[in-house]
Design goal:
This protein is mainly alpha-helical. It has two domains: 52 residues, no CATH class; 37 residues, no CATH class. Helices cover 49% and strands 11% of the residues. The protein is built from five helices and three strands. A three-stranded antiparallel beta sheet has the order 1-2-3, with no helix packed on it. Helix 4 crosses helix 5. It is elongated and about 65 Å long. The relative contact order is 0.05.
């Protein structure tokens, strides 16, 4: 495994086992990067099998809820305000965790 760190000037150095460092070569094609259009970036994202889906309107139109039993329980208990109560509980949980 290679250990590395980013220096204050933005360069990346390899940390050798004796503690010394060696600057790593930056192979970034700055011109290509600067000239890449948003359309090209979107195509690259769409073709990358490891990228998470884009959460646009089309995504949400096809989304499915996978925990209907939880939703049903809240609907029965809180009626038409079930979503508000769920958000309140999540907010309380998040706020409680941030103080720990």
């Amino acid at each position: 495994m290679t250990r590395a760190r980013v220096e204050p000037d933005g360069s990346v150095v390899e940390i050798k086992t004796d503690g010394s460092t060696r600057k790593l070569h930056d192979a970034t094609d700055d011109d290509r990067l600067r000239n890449t259009t948003d359309e090209e970036i979107n195509v690259q994202i769409a073709e990358d099998p490891d990228v998470a889906p884009i959460l646009d309107e089309a995504f949400w139109e096809n989304a499915r809820l996978v925990i209907p039993d939880v939703i049903d329980r809240y609907k029965k208990r809180y009626g038409k305000n079930y979503q508000m109560r769920m958000f309140e509980i999540l907010k309380e949980h998040i706020e409680g965790r941030s103080t720990q």
